[in-house]
Amino acid sequence: MSKDSATDISMKRIKPSAIYRLMLIGLGIPLQIFAVVCGVMGIFGADMVKWNDQPVHGILALPAAMFSALFVTVIFTAFMGSVTCLGLWIYSRFRPLKVKTLD
Question: What DSSP string describes 6-72?
């Protein structure tokens, strides 16, 4: 059994690009997986994918679902990333941020 070594890092500020990158990856992967599942279900006739309030069926359901998930990911990342940057900026005014990293 190997033990993971943990290191505590104390930082005053985090670059916004790091926050946006983490949000994009963290939201994008699960949403794209969900989009593939919905797109495959749409191929077989389920009303899982809609475009302009019209259900999309057949082979077009998969790219429509993936594009929709990409769009939602970018919008959520922009909004939630901005709110997260603001919150961490306010927090950094009072105390440094402590992060534990695992090797």
Answer: EEEEEES---HHHHHHHHHHHHHHHHHHHHHHHHHHHHTT-TT-EETTEE--GGGHHHHHHHHHHHH
Continuous segment of H or E residues that includes residue 103: none
Q: pTM for the whole thing?
A: 0.80
pLDDT of amino acid 98? 85
> What's the structural domain count of the chain?
1
- Residue 20 covered by a domain: no
Q: Name the residue range of residue 67's domain.
A: 37-91
The confidence band for 4, taking pLDDT boundaries of 50, 70 and 90, is low
